[in-house]
Amino acid sequence: MPLSPLASRFWGQNLGNIKSLLDGGEGGIPRQRGTDQAQMPVDIYEEIVKLRHEGRRGAVATIVNVRGSIPSFETAKMLVRDDGSIAGTIGGGCVEAEVWQAAREVMESEKPRTLTFNLNQDPKYDTGLVCGGTLDVFIEPVLPPASLFIFGGGHVSLNLYEVARRTGFDVTVIDDREAFANRERFPQAREVIAEDFEKAMARLTPAESSYIVIVTRGHRDDMRVLRWAVQTQARYVGMIGSKRKTITIFRELVKEGIPEHLFERVHAPVGLDIGAITPEEIAVAITAELIAVRRRAERTLPHMSWFKSHRASAEADASDRYTEGSQSEEKL
Length: 332
Known about the structure:
This protein is α/β, with parallel strands linked by helices. It is built from 9 helices and 11 strands. It has a 6-stranded parallel beta sheet with strand order 8-7-6-9-10-11, with helices on both faces. The chain has a 5-stranded antiparallel beta sheet with strand order 3-2-1-5-4, with helices on both faces. Strand 10 (about 235-240), helix 7 (about 245-255) and strand 11 form a beta-alpha-beta unit.
């Protein structure tokens, strides 16, 4: 079907600008470059697998509904990586630029969203093309596997491994006793490490999507692991034990020079307060807390952590002092 005179004139005047936008020129979107890019189309699904294998984030945008004429087609997909580069396309132009920005926000929130574009009514989408339809774009996050590092191979560890694995965590177990850290006890763990904790920690690099739970057999080992854990990028650090033990270890590590702010993401005593007593119940309480952090639960939950109550108390004291000071100034 031949183009209209208006469309022919538009393409003749703007083809260079459109190519620059799609290729990542000024104001454009960065695309992955490669010598074979022009000859070999990118497989979105392979790119998603690769991204997750590398422990990285992304977001997939899919055109899920079309009404009228649009510069693409229903089911078209675009992958936005955590470095801003993209694979695939949903049509280019202003729509793609907006979706790219929304995809970045979806990566941060880890929650999907849907955008609707009316190419007929919104002036900013008027590029002169013979397109005047409406399209819905669904954007969903691509998240790396949630890696759980369990330090200790005892009864709680064994049950935590079972419950956490069933809820989607990729579990690695570390213990310095081969009798407790072996494939017979943890057959479906991603990795089972039986060696000194210091040596194991030296070769582990938890990413931002990682979770660490410390359930070793003694306070000394707990403190060794916690000292290392708070200085990693792990999203969550939990340690089993009483409040007295927690406070003692915290004060000792701060005395060593570990900054207090590094303990802000520490959950100790670990788990939600559900009255757990047995190793099986404690494993459920810990996994529930892991899920709450993973899903960014916004409601108030009964965390057992002394750090959370300590921080809340400190914030309340600071607020009270500010209020008292303000009231004193008002009286003056």
